[in-house]
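quick one, 147 residues, struct below
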Amino acid sequence: MDPFLAFKIGATGLAVQRLRINLIASNIANIETTRTLKGTPYRRKDLVVMAMPVIRPANSNNPFEEKLIRALKAVIPVEVVEDSRPFKLVYKPSHPDADDKGYVRLPNVNPIEEMVNMISALRAYEANITVINNTKMMMIKALEIGR
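---
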């Protein structure tokens, strides 16, 4: 088995969490955007991720190794989806994007939800860094034993 596999799996996790943080930053930055190129308010975006086998199972005589290889999954981003929840309606008759009744449609971004998602992405990012650092320490210790 590849000794650098844990690094590869951790790196995919880091990349996905970085993408999540970027999307959350975009959602927060556009929390007051009432007009996009489509002519509608900004729609909240979210990342869809998928677990993917890291390596193809080899024909091994060891059933434990076969099961272990099948259980190892990396994460990859699949697509960015728009949140279909309705826009917020706020009464602001003086706003340039207000309708005939004085209501403005605001983006469907909830700042509390975004902060919770950001903390979750940050913790996952830190966990992936811990995996990489611990793997590095284990490899260093293994090299010291071999001296």
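The helical segments are 5-29, 63-71, 111-146.
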